[in-house]
Amino acid sequence: MKKVEILAVCSHPEILQTLLRLINSNPGWNGTGVENEQQALAYFNETSFDIVLLGSGMDEVSEDRLGPACLAINPAVKLIQHYGGGSGLLTCEIHEALA
Amino acid sequence: MANTVLHKADTRGFADHGWLKSHQSFSFAGYYNPERIHFGALRVLNDDVVLGGGGFGKHPHDNMEIISIPLEGDLEHKDSMGNTAVIKHGDIQVMSAGTGIYHSEYNQHASEAVKFLQIWVFPNKRNVEPRYDQIALDPADRHNRLQQILSPNTDDAGVWIYQNAWFHMGNFDKGLSTEYNLKAKGNGVYIFVLKGDVKVNDQLLNTRDGYGIWDVDQFTITAETDAEFLLMEVPMEFKY
Question: Of B78, B102, B136, which residue sits at a domain end?
């Protein structure tokens, strides 16, 4: 069965690692992590992601730009603005996006 | 006309990690209920018991207003901003996680449990500079009246957060009644009963029940027994 591909964007390296660890602990999900908008778009152009997870640290302009840019490439992608930084809300946010 | 939602205490999520027993009013970690995601900007209400010597190791947070209210015992807090503090019954602690912080929380006692409420409110601004605050409240100031413990204003009573929210606590003798007037249009109030029975308008609530009410300007809360409760007024519509 195809895994849900999740691109996590977060400029805080330790939080990004936590997010990836939590995502990849679910056998049905595969997480890829990047730290900024440019890296995100480079990966997004090469790989088919189901979800883009916007974590902390990006400036508002980059956040506002990244979502529409991803949707222009893949209108089916789900965008999640992640809150909380760890295990509390992440699973729920992904389940909601997939529902 | 008022809209309401009732969450009876025994319908909450529950996680037992041995050292931590957590009743969760809204979906959190392994508890997922699509009918219980949030009440407006109120996203997490965890009623936690940490056994003696136990605690949350170093873990990250971002973009969330996190409020801790100890009910019994002492909880030691350490964070990546250099804060080390002990919060105890009567205190309220707030963290604006913003761009990201790490912290740990441990029960200071080896044998006695610590009980506390962990409350998360969506911020009205993402990626703010992280901040931490803690104040001691006088529980006498909530006896038979509402004590404001949180607001959006830096110069108001209680702690402040990045959200148009107000929290109050009350410790009412049986029979006492008061009216709560909402502070802002478009806000709702989530009432959480800590102890005893209360009525919100005509709705009876028992210990640890939660009740949300919105599309109202005011409501009446009456202690049916000696009772303690927390009122959390939050925006119902918000950008996040």
Answer: B136
